[in-house]
Amino acid sequence: MEKNPWVNQVSNIRLALAIQALQAALQKADELKVSISVAIVNTAGMAIHTAHMEGAPFQCQDIALKKALTAVGFSASTSLWQERLKSMSTMVQQGLPLQKGMALFGGGEPFYFGAELIGAIGVSGASEEQDILCAKAAVERIKKML
Question: What confidence category does residue 91 fall into, taking pLDDT thresholds of 50, 70 and 90?
């Protein structure tokens, strides 16, 4: 099919793959003996699949979604923001974290099919390091399946 110059053609993660990614994140959380919330979004920021483990703080549901939205919106791991902010003006450093839907700390990872962004995952509820490990487990599962 020929590409139309007037229409965006975007690939997105589908539910079956999102389920696999979510299961990988939950399995890693079980290995780490932590409770997390997970949100997986497509490239438009629409939640495709979510989960909240028993024992994870209620607020982590919202934080996980914000991490996924930040990762997909900027096509980058949320753990990179601490370093990225250092090179920005004081106004940006102070203002960007206050923006609705932003989470500028580890636990959000984009999903790619080759070089094409297809969605993202956000994980919250454990330490930042553990959230990152759970999110990266999901990324690895997707890479294996694609």
Answer: very high
Q: Count how many Cα atoms sit within 13 Å of the Cα of residue 10 in the half-sphere of its side chain.
A: 13
**What is the domain class of 15-145 according to CATH?**
alpha beta
The domain spans of the chain are: 15-145
How does DSSP classify residue 45? -
Contact 96, 85 (CB under 8 A): yes
DSSP 146: -
The answer on pLDDT for 1 being more than 70 is: no
Q: Is residue 95 within 8 Å of residue 124, measured between CB atoms? A: no
Q: Is the pTM of this model over 0.85?
A: yes
Kindly state the helix (H) or strand (E) to which residue 23 belongs, with its residue range: helix 15-32
* CA contacts within 13 A on the Cβ side of 128: 10
